[in-house]
Amino acid sequence: FGDSVIIGGMQDNGNFFTNSTNPNVNWIPISGADGTYSTIADGKAFYYGSIQSGLTGRLNISNTGAVNVLTLARIDPTGGSGYLFINPFILDPDNTNRMYMAGGSYLWRNDDLSSILPGINTTSTGWTQLTHTNVGGIISAIGASKNQPNVVYFGTSIGRIYRIDNAQNGNPTPTDIWTGKGLPAGAYVSCVAVNPDDLGTVVATFSNYNTKSVFI
User: Fold this and answer.
1) Would residue 21 be called left, alpha or beta, if left means φ above 0 and alpha means ψ between -120 and 50 degrees?
2) Which three-class secondary structure string do you get for 125-179?
3) Cβ atoms within 10 Å of 77's Cβ, excluding its own
4) Is the pTM of this model over 0.90?
5) How many other β-carbons are positioned within 10 Å of the β-carbon of residue 133?
6) What's the first-to-final CA gap in the chain, in angstroms?
7) Close Cβ partners of 169 (under 8 Å, ≥ 6 residues apart)
8) Would you place residue 209 in the very low, low, confident or very high pLDDT band (cuts 50, 70, 90)?
9) What pLDDT is stored for residue 146 in this prediction?
10) Which residues, 6 or more positions from 134, have their beta carbon under 8 angstroms from its beta carbon?
């Protein structure tokens, strides 16, 4: 809050950084390829950016947007597969050293991102594949709220939405929260967002032709 630093990905044009609210100041490129999901850890301890098909990196970036290439770490999990071209991940809002990442039909959790060593290869450090999240379709959206610790929501490419309680521990089983709720059948869940002021309210968006798109 109150910080002017923003990072973001742009398909075909990489990931970019700005620390200025002046619309006339150019953004600074921090990666090439197809820029996709990106986020910033608390205190700007690390920046995270991804490109197509789930390749995700942990970066140290100066206040001027310079990337320290010596500390660059690829962090997507060894054994992960089935990534979407634009593949979602989030940091745990209550612990930004923890990440949840989609990998095909599975959700993966990393409990200690800072322990991953610099390098250009995938890593097994800190990663757990949550095998019970293979519930049909590809995981296409992930959401969580800082005011609802350790509860993670995810949606799939075939229109299903689930909640995981105590997502930070072990290999939890997700709870079906879409059956009988009147959500569109077979539509692609493109976003899941949790209301930070009302823990029982979740907004989901669906992407498909001739489909109502926003549900609460």
Assistant:
1) alpha
2) CCEEEEHHHCCCCCEEEEEECCCCCCCEEEEECCCCEEEECCCCCCCCCCEECCC
3) 23
4) yes
5) 25
6) 26
7) 150
8) confident
9) 86
10) 105, 106
